[in-house]
Amino acid sequence: MEKLLKQDEIDALFRAARASSPEPASGSAAVRAAVAYNFARAGQISNEQLRAISMLNDLFARNLTHNLAAWLRCRFQVNLVSAEQIPFSEFLMRIPEISYVTSVRLEPLGALSILQLDLGLAPPIIDLLLGGNGKEGPLRELTDIEEAILGSVVEIICRELTSAWQSVGLSFNFEKRQMQTQVARIMSVNEKTLCLTFEIRMPQGSGLLNLAFPAVVANTILRRLTTDWGRRHRHSPETRARIRAAAGRIRLGASVQLPSVRIATREIESLREGDVLRLGISTAVAAEWRVGGQELGTVEVVQHGTHRGGRLQELNRAGEHEHVS
């Protein structure tokens, strides 16, 4: 028998339902809080771009470590410290009062970048190149002869930068030393620059090597890194040849086997020595050749002397593109 509700009972149910449901948020609380946009953060380096930049400069640091260590005949270590985007005015504030600053022209863009080397590294480097033991010296301005010697070191740095950054198509050309009053005229003080900082360690001292790229160069580098870096070869032809030769000596498990079939459990349980198990496979079906668990083709089982082998009949589509020896 169905129960009929009166109007006052129906109203009571609706009031109870409304009381148990949460109240809707007010207009001011429901609107998501707005956050002011900081235009100064536009165009910041992404994590992917930062990883690509770090890979390039780690290569530069390793090459410079080996080449300068051999040239100076002493222990010489270069490490990447940071890669960041900062205004050029902030980069200028980081340059010590007594420092070695040069302009480097980047081709084919024709833009100028800044290379700054702590002068604390100059005395031991110059002493080593003049046949000494690399002793430290006071922090002072360089003579003309010392400046020419240190300029040859900067040329080697530019050469290694060109070698490491060849994947983005840039060439670093040492131009000339810049005085402190001239450096601020190379770029606008408000221009956002890509700043790379390296730490140089020697037995007789340590210091920093800083590079600052203008926005046009930074944008070109970042664009080419994100679009071309993944498609370019990251190793020289000689390195790829050594990798291929090393990979060719890797031994993989291989087998010649019949195609897989399904067998009822009762047939396996009733097997006895001497029984013949019917696989339901035609004698015309070729055996499979599997390497590393992957089927590469079909073979005919043959005998080669005292060993068994397989005569390759057909490669599958995956194997047609491989070099089979």
Give the helix/strand layout.
Blueprint: H1 7-20, H2 27-30, H3 47-72, E1 77-87, H4 88-94, E2 99-107, E3 111-118, H5 122-129, H6 144-164, E4 171-177, H7 180-183, E5 192-202, E6 205-213, H8 215-228, H9 237-248, E7 254-257, H10 265-269, E8 287-291, E9 294-304, E10 307-315, H11 317-320
Antiparallel strand pairs: 1-5, 2-3, 2-4, 3-6, 5-6, 7-8, 8-9, 9-10
Helix pairs in contact: 3-6
Structure description:
The protein has 325 residues and is of the alpha+beta class. The protein folds into two domains: 44-230, 3-Layer(aba) Sandwich (Chemotaxis protein chec), CATH 3.40.1550.10; 285-325, no CATH class. It is built from eleven helices and ten strands. It has helices at 7-20, 27-30, 47-72, 88-94, 122-129, 144-164, 180-183, 215-228, 237-248, 265-269, 317-320, and strands spanning 77-87, 99-107, 111-118, 171-177, 192-202, 205-213, 254-257, 287-291, 294-304, 307-315. The strands form two sheets. A six-stranded antiparallel beta sheet has the order 1-5-6-3-2-4. A four-stranded antiparallel beta sheet has the order 7-8-9-10. Strand 2 (99-107) and strand 3 form a beta hairpin. Helix 3 packs across helix 6. It is flat and about 95 Å long. The N and C termini lie far apart (87 Å). Residues 319-325 have low confidence and may be disordered.
